[in-house]
């Protein structure tokens, strides 16, 4: 399900920012981007996420930025000077110098020049701020999803209602459909009865099969039941996403059978409209937990 949340917390002179976003996915796929010093608590952070989120493609990014000059303490002086002297020597051979070339920014990106703090360097105050920020972003994320879910629920139920309304239109076509089938059967019977050599038992079997083949009463009843069950499930269950997907599949089976047995142009058009509404429901169900 789509969602977004962002939160900030101060821990001494350090500002911690957490941003969380999710996209549709049938499974839970989590991608964490966190500073190396926070890796020790990665499992604890994942557990907090799993407590709130059941599925979706999640991306969480954590940044921790110092608010003063203490960042200079993260520079490895020996590594920086070693790179500087080496580059300065090479540049002098080329008729320039490291100062003129402005290589300081390049050196800072060299391996081992900037050192990340380890978990043991992080004070308890910072850990407390980190998890407070995580809880805040999860609350924001959950509120965002709740708002999206309310609108989503209304949209899905609109499509379910549309299918139920179209089913009523099918019932309106039934008298004409039955009359057409009756005339077709009477014509076939008249032609067959002209031949005195037909097998009466076989004829009765074929007639029963023909009647059952075009009877759509059960399909109409089951489709109506599925629509009702869908509405009950989305209203009463806390995380109905998977069950709603199964119900939608059953609705699709009844609609397909209805179309194959209808043998009526008007009903066939209605079936196409039902399929269109059902596809919209299935697309939206990817957003439902």
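^ structure tokens above, recovered residues below v
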């Amino acid at each position: 399900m789509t969602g977004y949340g962002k939160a900030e917390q101060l821990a001494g002179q350090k500002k911690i920012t957490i941003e969380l976003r999710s996209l549709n996915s049938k499974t839970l796929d989590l991608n964490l981007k966190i500073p190396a010093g926070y890796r020790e608590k990665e499992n604890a952070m994942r557990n907090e996420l799993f407590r709130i989120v059941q599925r979706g493609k999640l991306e969480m990014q954590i940044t921790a930025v110092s608010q003063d000059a203490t960042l200079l303490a993260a520079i490895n002086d020996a590594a920086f000077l070693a790179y500087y002297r080496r580059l300065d020597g090479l540049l002098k051979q080329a008729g320039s110098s490291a100062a003129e070339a402005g290589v300081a920014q390049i050196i800072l990106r060299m391996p081992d020049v900037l050192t990340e703090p380890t978990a043991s360097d992080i004070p308890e105050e910072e850990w407390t701020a980190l998890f407070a920020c995580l809880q805040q972003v999860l609350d924001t994320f959950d509120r965002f999803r709740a708002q999206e879910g309310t609108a989503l629920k209304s949209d899905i139920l609109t499509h379910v209602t549309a299918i139920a309304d179209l089913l009523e239109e099918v019932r309106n076509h039934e008298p004409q459909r039955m009359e057409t089938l009756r005339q077709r059967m009477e014509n076939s019977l008249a032609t067959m009865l002209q031949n005195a050599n037909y097998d009466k038992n076989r004829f009765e079997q074929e007639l029963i099969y023909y009647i059952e083949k075009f009877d759509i009463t059960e399909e109409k009843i089951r489709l109506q039941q599925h629509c009702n069950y869908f509405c009950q499930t989305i209203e009463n269950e806390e995380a109905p996403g998977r069950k709603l997907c199964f119900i939608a599949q059953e609705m699709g089976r009844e609609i397909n059978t209805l179309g194959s047995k209808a043998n009526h142009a008007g009903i066939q058009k209605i079936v196409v409209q039902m399929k269109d509404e059902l596809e919209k429901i299935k697309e939206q169900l990817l957003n439902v937990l």
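The first helix runs from residue 42 to 52.
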